[in-house]
């Protein structure tokens, strides 16, 4: 976006947007930063330890779709820690 386009958008902005811009420019912005959440990926062994089950059980749960998994490369699965937290919360 060019500088001219930015100025045009700024001149056409509504009062609420201008207030946000002012807050950012003065360093008084009060919006809390967004929480990206827990983005860790656990090995099947680590997930099994956290849940207190065997690695084979984790494999079966991912295969059956009861536990989501991310394939980081062929044959290498990682379990999102958020999925473990949600699974424990259901029980």
Strand content: 5-15%
Low-confidence stretches: none
Write the element-wise H/E pattern from the N-terminal end onward.
HHEHHEEH
Cα shape: elongated
Strand order of the largest sheet: 1-3-2
Total strand segments: 3
Can you tell me about this structure?
This protein is α+β, with helices and mostly antiparallel strands and 91 residues long. The chain has helices at residues 3-11, 15-26, 44-51, 55-63, 81-90, and strands at 41-42, 70-73, 76-80. The protein has five helices and three strands, in the order ααβααββα. β2 (70-73) and β3 (76-80) form a beta hairpin. α3 (44-51) packs across α4. The longest helix is centred in the first third of the chain and has 12 residues, at 15-26. The mean pLDDT is 86.
Break the fold down into its secondary structure elements and pairings.
Blueprint: H1 3-11, H2 15-26, E1 41-42, H3 44-51, H4 55-63, E2 70-73, E3 76-80, H5 81-90
Antiparallel strand pairs: 1-3, 2-3
Q: What is the compact description of this entry?
A:
The protein is built from 5 helices and 3 strands; from the N terminus they run ααβααββα. By secondary structure, it is an alpha+beta fold.
Which tags fit this structure?
Multidrug-efflux Transporter Regulator, Chain: A, Domain 2; 3-stranded antiparallel beta sheet; elongated; 91 residues; alpha+beta; 2 domains
């Amino acid at each position: 976006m060019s500088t001219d386009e930015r100025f045009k958008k700024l001149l056409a902005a509504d009062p609420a947007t201008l207030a946000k811009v002012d807050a950012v420019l003065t360093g008084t912005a009060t919006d809390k930063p967004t929480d990206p959440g827990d983005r860790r990926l656990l090995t099947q062994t680590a997930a099994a330890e956290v849940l207190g089950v065997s690695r084979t059980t984790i494999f079966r749960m991912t295969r059956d779709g009861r536990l989501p998994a991310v394939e980081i490369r062929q044959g290498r699965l990682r379990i999102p820690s958020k999925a473990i937290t949600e699974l424990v919360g259901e029980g």
